[in-house]
């Protein structure tokens, strides 16, 4: 059994003159859980380093990045509204950044180049695997490898790219059809299902993923609870919304005996690559990490 943060006190954070530095660029950035998570890992692994919030207005984004690089930072996470600007600014892009046209992790290399990664989608797939949902093995005879993705925003794009790379056949459905068509046209192998019909077609899919903000506390429709009676017997229901931890969609799926995976794991797993690149340690996403971050939701 993993110890809770209460039973295993964290060491005091060590920040010397040689500390490694990183942070999160956003506007606004006050809602971000990244400083909490990265500083938790820094303390847990005894790393001499710090991770700070970096509020940067859109017009100041590039100046802020160049300034951080000049001041010796190792890199930064990038959140709304800077992900596309970070994509344009990076000198070297990994495959997921190229496929999504956005960057959420910047790494300042020793040769002066800026490397850009998009880790959301791979973080999502890693969270599924950590929850015991193996891809593409989740498929069964009646559904094949088909996944239904609700949403066509930034998160949907990253998740679609990584699910396709993991061998799944991705179908997009979105309230605004044109956005779904645009997303499907920009990536190979994607199909589109009309928003009004997806509940009736659920029997065709092995995995349902909500990437919209429906069901999110404070979002457009916090009570979002679609009909799941047509679900295939082995359907896995994943929701990338992580506040609340169990969304109404997940609660309904659980009531029907379906397996569910929440969004917190994605949030934690997407952070691992950056932490490793900046601070030189491969961090664990475990019950202790989850409990620490979850505690911040109630405070
Ligand atoms: N777990 C994680 O680590 C993680 C990471 C990233 C994002 N997220 C969460 O994922 C959600 C989406 O983020 P995003 O960056 O992709 O946002 P986004 O680009 O703004 O996309 C929002 C999506 O939600 C849909 N939507 C919004 N209101 C709706 C409504 N009333 N009815 C039907 N559809 C509606 C939009 O449909 P239209 O195109 O029709 O407007 C669009 O597909 C947010 O809740 C965010 O917190 C979680």
From TrEMBL:
UniProt keyword terms in alphabetical order: Amino-acid biosynthesis, Aromatic amino acid biosynthesis, NADP, Oxidoreductase
Record bears the keyword NADP: yes
Function: Involved in the biosynthesis of the chorismate, which leads to the biosynthesis of aromatic amino acids. Catalyzes the reversible NADPH linked reduction of 3-dehydroshikimate (DHSA) to yield shikimate (SA).
Ligand binding (NADP(+)): 95, 151-155, 174-179, 240, 263
Name this polypeptide is given: Shikimate dehydrogenase (NADP(+))
Active site: 83
Similarity comment text for this entry: Belongs to the shikimate dehydrogenase family.
Pathway: Metabolic intermediate biosynthesis; chorismate biosynthesis; chorismate from D-erythrose 4-phosphate and phosphoenolpyruvate: step 4/7
Catalytic reaction list: shikimate + NADP(+) = 3-dehydroshikimate + NADPH + H(+)
EC number of this enzyme: 1.1.1.25
Domain Quinate/shikimate 5-dehydrogenase/glutamyl-tRNA reductase: 143-213
GO cellular component: cytosol
Binding-site residues for shikimate, renumbered to this chain: 32-34, 79, 104, 120, 242, 270
Quaternary assembly: Homodimer.
NCBIfam families, per the entry: aroE, PRK00258.1-4
InterPro entries reported in the protein's UniProt record: Aminoacid_DH-like_N_sf, NAD(P)-bd_dom_sf, SDH_C, Shikimate_DH, Shikimate_DH-bd_N, Shikimate_DH_fam, Shikm_DH/Glu-tRNA_Rdtase
Domain SDH C-terminal intervals: 263-287
Single GO MF descriptor: NADP binding
Shikimate dehydrogenase substrate binding N-terminal domain location: 24-106
A single GO BP: aromatic amino acid family biosynthetic process
Domain of life the protein comes from: Bacteria
